[in-house]
Amino acid sequence: MEINGNSLLASLLISSMGFVAFMYGKRQRRLPQMLVGVLLMGFPYFVSNVLLMFGLAVVLLACLWGMLRLGL
């Protein structure tokens, strides 16, 4: 696995969003935010392609949005 500056910066940004989502979910006792937060913090370790990383982050955040719209 090749690590370059772009993938490291993208990983840091996405993991930070995941940390914020997880902490918000933990404080509010909301499972969807905690679940998506853990996934956002974890998957950048396994993906090195920056576009794929941002694509997966968008999909996870869209799933979170959908879960919240459904009232979960």
Give a structural overview.
With 72 residues, this protein is mostly helical. It has one domain. The chain is built from three helices and no strands. The protein has helices at 5-28, 31-42, 50-69. The longest helix is centred in the first third of the chain and has 24 residues, at 5-28. The termini are far apart.
Indicate the structural class. Answer: mainly alpha
Distance between the termini: 37 Å
Round the mean pLDDT to the nearest integer and report it. Answer: 92
- Tally of structural domains: 1
DSSP helix fraction: over 70%
| Total beta strands | 0
Counting H and I runs of at least 4 residues, what is the number of helices? 3
Uncertain stretches of 5 or more adjacent residues? none
| Shape estimate | elongated
Q: What Rg, in angstroms, do the CA atoms define?
A: 13 Å
| Helix-strand string | HHH
Beta-strand percentage range: under 5%
Question: In this structure, how is the largest beta sheet organized?
Answer: none
Topology:
Layout: H1 5-28, H2 31-42, H3 50-69
Which structural traits does this protein have?
single chain; 3 helices; 72 residues; mainly alpha
Please give a quick description of this structure.
With 72 residues, this protein is an all-alpha fold. It is built from 3 helices and no strands. The longest helix is centred in the N-terminal third of the chain and has 24 residues.
